[in-house]
Amino acid sequence: EIRLSLVGSEMCIRDSPVVVVIEDSDEDFYTFRRMIEKLDTFENTSHPLLRFDDGDDALDYLLREGEYTELTAPRPKLVLLDLNLPGTDGRDIIKGVRHDPRLRSLPIVVLTTSQNQQDIETCYANGANGYVLKRVGIQATQDTLQVLVRYWFVISVLPDPS
Predict the structure, then answer these.
(1) What is the average pLDDT across 71-86?
(2) Burial of 112 (0-12, 13-18, 19+ CB in 10 A)
(3) Nearest Cα to 66, choosing from 50, 55, 81?
(4) Other C-beta atoms lying within 10 Å of the C-beta of residue 130
(5) I want to staple 161 with a disulfide (CB 3.0 to 4.6 A). Which of 6, 17, 85, 95 is the partner?
(6) pTM of the full predicted structure?
């Protein structure tokens, strides 16, 4: 049985659908985690986060390759993806996920600083469900993440990840 370290606790990955966060910046990840924790407390819900700071490892997990070939856990319910990552970058992760028939309905939201139109067009053309800019400043970041979290975790109806 493969055990993964989920943010906040060590638990068996099959216990609950997770949100995969692919982000190499500790600061950006911990800001997002604090927003999820606040929302979970307010909404009386639970959204375990599984973080990857490397594109290669994240793609292996999503595609169940490499050390994750024996993993029988349900698919994640959402992927939050930075574009510029060590190893496989976010653009290639989107392509890899969308080429796998088991993952075509998995929502992928890009969370990045890139305002480059080519990046935006490439991400949507390859199947991203959203493209959100990381904003500068604590309040702006909190406002953006609050809208993102409320939309994807409260308002939106997501496909069953299993």
Answers:
(1) 84
(2) buried
(3) 55
(4) 17
(5) 17
(6) 0.84
